[in-house]
Amino acid sequence: MFHKNVPPTLAPGQIGVVDCGHAEDHRGIVHSVLRVADLAILNTAPTTADIDRIERLPMRTLIDDIATLRPDNTPPPTWVLLNRTANGAKATKQYKDYLRERGWNVFTTTIPSTQVYAGFCLVRASQPCRRTSG
What we know:
Shape: globular
Number of helices: 5
Structural class: alpha/beta
């Protein structure tokens, strides 16, 4: 009962951010959060499997159906944020276009993928590279 329990605990002007995880596994939580959300952001990678999850659920229906339970009878504004993107990868643009063609708002900003390799560290050439255990 997020929509009843959490909003009263927020101070005026305070912003709350909620990661609902996989909506297909937590529909009740997602419904409750969407009842009071000012903005919904679908965080997904530009991969066939992740985009398929949005369509298969279907996420659009899940978000639109909550409108009748909201004070203004409209679903929250919804945007897609692509994450784990690779610099220069064609898939990022292709999936942005694909989602836009299907009526989704898609942020122009993406969250790039970062990888850390065991045993390597990147520092300025003037600084020694020290490997830490663990």
